């Protein structure tokens, strides 16, 4: 097993978001998050748990441009990562203010996001590695392809959900009601098509299309996403999204 897709990014003036996954996809692992503030400093343990994300709000870490992270799982270590930082306090401030407003308004709902990993593993439910083929005709764990992509998460954030658009979809003989919701969120985390948004245990959505990203230009002429407008489709059970763990929804 290796730790892969390990990234760190300063998303606003208050948080550095770390995300990673494993290859192959393995459930119920325990990860140590380690941080060193300066070159030559020892890495110290700052968090331990099963999540494959961590939000670092430590002030020294936020102010120190030499801060580095690595992830440990058993005897396996990730590479070391220095957070990507646009180094523009004004633009980072806009993103942070927007998140702060979402947290403050009554309709900013505590939500959890799981971002789709990029690597593909064999589906543990329907793919037989010895026979090298799918051994079930339908599968609730993967989308029926025999391969599965894990998720990196959960990331706690605040989302303003807007109107519900209902429509009927035809699935063979059965008609099911489809629930589409529009939502506004900050850049924490930046989502993409296929990511999962958990509004509550019973309300889990998939990001249904590429979000409408709202950019600002930094003093160094970089484009930086400060907010996102997303279209979400409510997932019907059974779906793998309902097995994703969250603590307090
Ligand atoms: Zn499957």
N/C terminus separation: 31 Å
What number of domains? 2
Largest β sheet strand count, sense and barrel closure: 6 strands, antiparallel, barrel
Instruction: List the secondary-structure elements in sequence, H or E.
Output: EEEEEHEEHEEEEEEEEEEE
Number of strands: 18
What topology does this entry show?
Layout lengths: L1 E9 L5 E8 L7 E6 L7 E6 L3 E4 L2 H5 L4 E6 L2 E2 L11 H16 L3 E9 L4 E2 L4 E2 L4 E2 L12 E2 L2 E21 L2 E13 L9 E5 L2 E5 L4 E6 L5 E12 L15
Antiparallel strand pairs: 1-2, 2-5, 3-4, 3-6, 6-7, 8-13, 8-15, 9-12, 10-11, 13-14, 14-18, 15-16, 16-18, 17-18
Bound molecules: zinc ion.
Zinc ion binds next to loops.
Keywords, separated by commas or semicolons:
8% helix, mainly beta, Immunoglobulin-like, globular, six-stranded antiparallel beta barrel, binds zinc ion, 249 residues
């Amino acid at each position: 097993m290796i730790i892969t897709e390990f990234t760190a990014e300063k998303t606003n003036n208050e948080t550095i978001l770390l995300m990673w996954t494993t290859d192959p996809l393995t459930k119920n692992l325990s990860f140590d998050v380690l941080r060193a503030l300066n070159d030559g400093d020892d890495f110290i343990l700052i968090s331990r748990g099963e999540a494959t994300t961590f939000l670092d709000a430590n002030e020294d870490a936020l102010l120190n441009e030499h801060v580095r992270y690595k992830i440990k799982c058993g005897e396996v270590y990730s590479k070391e990562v220095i957070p990507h930082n646009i180094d523009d306090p004004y633009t980072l401030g806009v993103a942070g203010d927007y998140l702060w407003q979402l947290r403050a308004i009554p309709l900013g709902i505590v939500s959890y996001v799981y971002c789709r990993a990029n690597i593909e593993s064999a589906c543990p439910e329907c793919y037989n590695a010895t026979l090298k083929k799918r051994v079930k005709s339908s599968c609730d764990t993967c989308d029926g392809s025999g391969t599965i992509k894990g998720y990196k998460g959960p990331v706690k954030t605040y989302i303003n959900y807007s109107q519900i658009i209902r429509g009927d979809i035809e699935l063979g003989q059965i008609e099911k009601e489809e629930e589409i919701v529009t939502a506004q969120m900050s850049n924490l985390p930046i989502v993409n098509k296929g990511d999962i948004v958990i509004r509550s245990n019973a309300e889990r959505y998939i990001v249904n299309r590429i979000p409408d990203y709202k950019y600002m230009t930094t003093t160094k002429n970089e484009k930086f996403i400060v907010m996102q407008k997303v279209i979400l489709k409510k997932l019907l059970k059974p779906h793998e999204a309902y097995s994703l763990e969250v603590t307090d929804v």
